[in-house]
Amino acid sequence: AKAQGRNTLSFFEPEMQAHTSANAQLQSDLHRALERCELLLHYQPILDRKRRIIGVESLVRWQHPEMGMVSPARFIPVAEQCGLILPLGDWVLEQTCRQLVAWAAHASTAELFAAVNISARQLSQPDFVVKVLETVRRTGASPSRLKLELTESMFLLDVEGVIEKMAALKRHGIGFSLDDFGTGYSSLCYLQRLPLDRLKIDKSFVSDLPDNANSAAIGAAIIGLAHNLGLQVIAEGVENQEQWQFLLEGQCDAFQGYLFAPPLPVEELDRRLSLGSDQ
Ligand code: C2E
Ligand code: CA
Ligand code: CA
Ligand code: CA
């Protein structure tokens, strides 16, 4: 067993090293990306039951000079590990607030909310609340148009501290969604105590709808639970008509996914919104 263990180790070692050095390269590239403005935001529409766009989720994109578009699924974990998620997160928040101000000036976009993904590391900073409020004030964004998406990984933090921070921001009108619900460490007892407005059903459940009986049961249960707690439900990753129909019949409140629109550059989103208001 020992010999086998050694073999396994020597077999995996070069691969792990390659992975580590690829991450180190990515990390230094990301540092440069932040300085040279290689990051941009795309906005994915969130729709109500009547298929009207009510808001967007801000999703960061990285146009790497050699590698092309790098997926956030690849670089966000690296940024979280090395701490670059802090300046990156500040940038996403500021950029989104500026966009909210631009949208506030036009009738077809004035009512939109924008949701920003917040990583556990950002939330655990002692100055998180001050920083968010300061960004909102400096940019002139309306706090009630800003939503923050937290994941269940925040249950691993000091929960009392998290509740206090959320409550402080909520007093200023900023809303909260619990992202990727059903995939993490959720405890139903926390769910009741956190000042949340919305739950987002993770796309892994949505993708199996409606044929997978387990996902259908879980989806229906999440919607029922959320409504009983006074929370709205957003389904993410809605890709086809069958999923949309199932969720609609299940009284889901809002929807996001490729069936409606992928994450869009701001010009494309604005174009769709102004077309919508002409009709
Ligand atoms: P997420 O917060 O769960 O975001 C939803 C992801 O699902 C996005 O991937 C979106 O493009 C994708 N998506 C939307 N509709 C569909 C669909 O119908 N089908 C499928 N299969 N996928 C769909 P994206 O943009 O690649 O982002 C991946 C993750 O990276 C996000 O997952 C989020 O965890 C993280 N992320 C992105 N931007 C930020 C950011 O600014 N800050 C932080 N902390 N994390 C971010
Ligand atoms: Ca999200
Ligand atoms: Ca999500
Ligand atoms: Ca996700």
From TrEMBL:
Residue stretches making up the EAL domain? 23-277
What name does the UniProt record give this protein? Diguanylate cyclase/phosphodiesterase
| Complete-protein stretch covered | 622 to 900 of 907
